[in-house]
Amino acid sequence: MISEQAAHNLEQDKRRAIIRNVIIITVAIIGLLILAYLAFRSFKMYSEARIALREAKNIKMTLEVANLEYYSVGASVFDETSEGNIRKGARDYVDRVQNNPEGLYRLTGYDSELRKITGFEFENEKYIVRYSHTSDGDKWQIFQIKELLDY
Hints:
This protein is an alpha+beta fold.
């Protein structure tokens, strides 16, 4: 027969084992929830960045079409005196074709000899997409805009 003290100790050990298992399972579930949240957030951020890139590429392509049209009359889309360095008629054309894109776009570089856009930026609420043409080829960069402090 087991003494009362031994039975009591055995019962306490069982309770401790159950509590330990509940704590381990709880920590594991919380860890999995945090991991799932981080994975979802990362996927969402990546998807939004790809959408911003697609919109920027569409705007740049439309600017190139407008540039061809301006070339036929001896002009270009680049105009340093206009908003975003883009001639007013070209900006209107882009807005019409792209259904008024949500965001700001501007030319940051233009090769007047080759009549080619060499720099372009598109900015929406969350991302800045930057295009540059170099001797190595075309380069697209996507930057996330984060507000750190609001005074």
